[in-house]
Amino acid sequence: MFRSFMDQALLEARAAAARGEVPVGAVIVAPSGEVVARAGNRTRELCDPTAHAEVLAIREACRKAGSERLVGHDLYVTLEPCPICAGTISAARIRRLYYGAADVKSGGVAQGARVFSHPQCHHAPEIYDGLAAAEAEALLKGFFAARRDG
Amino acid sequence: MFRSFMDQALLEARAAAARGEVPVGAVIVAPSGEVVARAGNRTRELCDPTAHAEVLAIREACRKAGSERLVGHDLYVTLEPCPICAGTISAARIRRLYYGAADVKSGGVAQGARVFSHPQCHHAPEIYDGLAAAEAEALLKGFFAARRDG
Predict the structure, then answer these.
(1) Directed axis angle between helix B53-65 and helix B2-18, to 10°?
(2) With pLDDT > 90 as the criterion, what percentage of chain B qualifies?
(3) Of A22, A53, A61, B97, which one has the fewest beta carbons inside 10 Å?
(4) B59-112 tens-digit pLDDT
(5) Which class for B63: exposed (0-12), middle (13-18), buried (19 or more C-beta within 10 A)?
(6) Average pLDDT over residues B106-122
(7) What phi and psi values does residue B89 have, to the nearest 5 degrees?
(8) Inter-residue contact A107 to A116 (CB < 8 Å)
(9) Among A118, A49, A117, CA closest to B86
């Protein structure tokens, strides 16, 4: 089950790479178990520095829910969220955060800003990391290697 | 000059309050000195937890610039940015950040996540705080007091 949701997030990450975007994908699952939103990075295409997979998926799910909060919803994402995304996950009241690869360079959950680890963070999700991390990392490494060689 | 830009941000904050949104306003100034975007909070209206004044203004300026980066641009905002907004300011490569009131409860610049103060933050703006702080704070206090009494 968890694996199936992360597989869908990996599909979104691959689609992002095919569009020339950093390959990160995200999926949102409602309390019913239904996938209500999925997205990959589109920062270049949309000229929007906030168009990360997590933010796009949360925006879509919120639009559908008619609410700025997604109580009881879970987020699956292939890479450790950055501070923008971690802040958005908190503001949207996401219940559980499942992520794949650690992001030593830009992460904001287990390193750096550690957005969920301060009293100024009003909601922290339950966090499960390392899901399908090897695949998520291979996708990112392949993408950046191809750009260096290209 | 600085004061005039912050006055425009305060106008946006007042307009947000009139819409029933938390009164925070932001303005973006291009290297030419021209105001290229202005916005107030619209999280409720748009059902979007990222629709903070800073994020909306940066997205608008990016759309106009046709780029996900706003090199040389300055941001004026009435309240200390939260982690979502600080991360967006960094990603957009904003040159200077001018802000009004400190946000002890949800701020992510001078407290809490301190987004700009980690090696995982790839760009930190020059920061000038406390501009028109009393007015920005009075707006917020008035808004929340009216909601408590209403």
Answers:
(1) 120
(2) 95
(3) A22
(4) 999 999 999 999 999 999 999 999 999 999 999 999 999 999 999 999 999 999
(5) middle
(6) 97
(7) -60, -40
(8) no
(9) A49
Kindly state the tokens that stand for A55. 């933010």
Is the Cα dihedral B132, B133, B136, B137 positive or negative?
negative
ipTM (interface pTM): 0.96
Q: Is the pLDDT of residue B147 over 90?
A: no
Alpha carbon of A103 to those of A19, A30, A118, B64: distances in Å? 21, 26, 20, 31
Nearest CA in chain B to A107: B120
Kind plus residue range of the DSSP H or E element containing B42: none
Helices (DSSP H) in chain A: which residue ranges? Answer: 2-18, 43-46, 53-65, 83-91, 133-149
Please list the residues that pair with B97 across neighbouring strands. Answer: B75, B127
> Chain B contacts of A55, Cβ < 8 Å?
50
Q: Which amino acid is at A101?
A: A
Strand order in the sheet with B35-40: B35-40, B25-29, B74-79, B96-101, B126-128
Distances in Å between the alpha carbon of B70 and those of A47, B31, B57, B90, B92? 10, 9, 11, 10, 5
Task: For residues A110-123, give the mean pLDDT.
Answer: 97
Identify whether A137 is a catalytic site residue. no
Are B120 and A114 an interchain contact pair (Cβ–Cβ within 8 Å)?
no
- Average pLDDT score over chain B: 96
Residue A5 in tokens: 């949701």
Is B141 a residue whose pLDDT tops 70? yes
Q: For residue B112, give how far its alpha carbon lies from the nearest alpha carbon of chain A (Å).
A: 5
CB–CB contact A59 B67 (8 Å): no
Is B71 an interface residue toward A (CB < 8 Å)? no
